[in-house]
Design a protein that fits this description.
This protein has helices spanning 46-49, 94-112, 186-198, 259-270, and strands at 3-5, 16-23, 26-31, 37-38, 41-43, 53-61, 64-70, 80-84, 124-125, 132-133, 140-141, 146-155, 158-164, 176-179, 201-213, 218-229, 239-246. By secondary structure, it is α+β, with helices and mostly antiparallel strands. The protein starts with a strand and ends in an 8-residue tail after the last helix. The relative contact order is 0.12.
Length: 278
């Protein structure tokens, strides 16, 4: 059995449940070893006895209910701690990594849309799907998904990489990315974002793959493209540094679990070089 998404809670839930508990960008885990943690699985009474805020049922894993919610650090059970959700990767099973990303997005929706954005009335949770409905004006609020593009641009066997102003790791370089604006296609977004951030034109825009990126709510749509014209001229409000890198002299780049890492790995493999260690 695998994870089954659902907004419809059974009348009689399972005796135990997995709890995906969040605090800002952190998630609650129990430490198993120096490299492994697990998502807590407790008796369902944990919801009430520990006063989990904004609890929300979001599915089941191997017939065990799954909830998301938030909890004060002062109420943490012994042996448990909050860690950054990104650090879950390779420390839990892949299924739990993906479940945590989904739980994070459902939790954000459930907490961020308590009040209607149109009239301010407190919303009610719909019973048949993940939606919050305004009882006053009937506006429905679904989990937010922000579409974004990410693109690997190649020129003469070199890859364009940049350091972003908002990167947590200021030594990290990555491929370019940006959010889709109203009224534009994904390909139009690629051309606009690249030109705005580094001042060049691209061609041969080709779909690569997509990835849910719940930090906090993006759907990243990946592309590859070729340099068409222009010299690098960075937008200093977005980019700290940008340049062309050959396959044997890549700077520090994102891990392969991210679509940015996968795009860079595609470039490395397409040039016949050994994939850089992460």
């Amino acid at each position: 059995m695998t994870f089954i998404k659902s907004a419809v809670h059974k009348t009689h839930g399972t005796p135990t449940a997995y709890f995906f508990i969040f605090s800002n960008t952190d998630i609650l885990v129990r430490q198993i070893s120096d490299t492994q943690v697990i998502i807590p699985c407790w008796d369902r009474t944990f919801l009430d006895t520990n006063k989990v805020a904004d609890p929300c049922f979001f599915g089941s894993f191997q017939n065990i209910d799954c909830y998301c919610g938030k909890l004060s650090e002062s109420r943490l059970p012994p042996g448990h701690a909050f860690i950054n959700i990104r650090s879950l990767y390779n420390r839990v099973q892949d299924c739990f990594w993906h479940m945590a990303g989904y739980a994070r997005q459902i939790h954000d929706w459930n907490t961020n849309f308590k009040f209607c954005g149109r009239c301010g009335t407190r919303t009610l949770k719909k019973q048949t799907e993940h939606a919050r409905v305004c009882p006053s004006c009937n506006l429905q609020h679904y989990p937010r998904i922000s579409s974004a593009i990410i693109v690997a641009i190649v020129k003469d066997d070199q890859l364009l990489l940049a350091r972003g102003v908002n990167f947590p790791d200021k030594k990290m370089f990555s491929v370019l990315a940006g959010f889709v604006e109203p009224g534009e296609s994904l390909e139009e977004c690629v051309r606009r974002e690249v030109f705005e951030e580094v001042g060049i034109q691209v061609k041969n825009i080709t779909y690569f793959k997509s990835q849910s990126w719940p930090f906090p709510d993006s759907l990243m749509v990946g592309f590859t493209a070729d340099h068409d014209s222009g010299q690098i001229s960075i937008d200093p409000e977005e980019i700290l540094e940008a340049g062309w890198f050959d396959v044997d002299h890549l700077p520090k780049t994102p891990a392969k679990y991210s679509i940015s890492g996968k795009l860079i790995d595609w470039f490395v493999r397409s040039r016949g070089a050994r994939s850089p260690a992460k």
